[in-house]
Recover the amino acids of this structure.
């Protein structure tokens, strides 16, 4: 009530946010703090020029949402709150430290389908791509932005197809730059998978994207989620074009088929990885030339191993 009575006074909003933040460590206060998210974002949106207020507000929201996730609660931002956060992003797009915090916050809320849809409606995707281009070397920002892109693309209703298509080269650039960073590479692979599912890649994208995904698998063989999502992304590419399937067979850095076999043996007890590999192989055998090569690599033996390992799946 104190904050709402004086929207236009920056000091009141700052003091209010500080007072709310003092309750964060009190678990009994959490249900009440949940009801304050709109007030906090509105204060941030009303006083966008004050970076200190933006930082304190963002920190408080991060803590509230972190506690919500720990308790299994999904924070569904309405469109007005999403719009407020979007304007905050645009206003301070050059401040790397603050943008890193804000992107982490957006990543946390975008897990909700409602929040993802509202962020998409207010036009967050072009802003995310601009942030990625500007801060391509920042691993935290790249991780968060790719995770947000994944959430927005999988919930996409194809109303923004052209916008999503423009995300492909940027996401590929992130993966290329952070191949050795398993966390970022995993996030970028997931985003590319979602973009491939939405049919956002063009004919010229299939071969280089397939090669890039294979590089990510080679560089991070121990990361089961990356292997799974990388294979799902490859499967989506192969479904669209034989060019992608041939790129896997003829990759200059080594046989993609052998890589698939090696990845399975490394994660033979992971049903998600096995399922993704099977899906990829199922797409590849739709092409006669590819199927002959897979036979030469004795893929029947691998399939038999998977069938024995997961007889009831």
């Amino acid at each position: 009530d104190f904050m709402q009575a004086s929207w236009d006074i920056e000091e009141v909003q700052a003091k209010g946010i500080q007072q709310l933040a003092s309750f964060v460590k009190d678990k009994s206060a959490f249900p009440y703090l949940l009801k304050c998210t709109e007030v906090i974002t509105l204060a941030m949106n009303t006083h966008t020029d004050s970076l200190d207020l933006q930082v304190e507000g963002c920190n408080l929201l991060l803590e509230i949402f972190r506690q919500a996730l720990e308790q299994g609660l999904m924070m569904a931002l309405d469109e007005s709150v999403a719009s407020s956060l979007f304007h905050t992003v645009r206003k301070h797009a050059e401040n790397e430290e603050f943008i890193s915090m804000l992107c982490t916050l957006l990543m946390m809320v975008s897990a909700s389908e409602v929040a993802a849809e509202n962020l998409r409606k207010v036009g967050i995707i072009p802003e995310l791509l601009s942030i990625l281009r500007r801060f391509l070397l920042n691993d935290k920002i790249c991780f968060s932005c790719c995770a947000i892109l994944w959430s927005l693309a999988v919930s996409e209703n194809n109303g923004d197809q052209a916008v999503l298509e423009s995300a492909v080269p940027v996401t590929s650039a992130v993966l290329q730059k952070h191949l050795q960073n398993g966390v970022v590479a995993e996030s970028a692979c997931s985003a590319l998978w979602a973009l491939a599912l939405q049919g956002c890649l063009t004919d010229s994208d299939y071969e280089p994207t397939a090669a890039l995904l294979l590089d990510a698998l080679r560089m991070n063989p121990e990361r089961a989620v990356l292997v799974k999502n990388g294979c799902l992304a490859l499967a989506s590419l192969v479904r669209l074009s034989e060019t992608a399937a041939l790129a896997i067979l003829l990759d200059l850095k080594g046989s993609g088929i052998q890589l698939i076999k090696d990845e399975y043996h490394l994660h033979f007890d992971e049903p998600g990885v096995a399922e993704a590999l099977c899906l990829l192989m199922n797409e590849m055998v739709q092409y006669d030339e590819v199927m002959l090569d897979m036979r030469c690599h004795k893929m029947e033996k691998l399939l038999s191993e998977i069938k024995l390992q997961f007889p009831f799946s």
Remarks:
- The chain has a mean pLDDT of 90.
- The CA atoms of residues 22 and 60 lie 10 Å apart.
- The first helix runs from residue 10 to 21.
- Residues 182-312 form one domain.
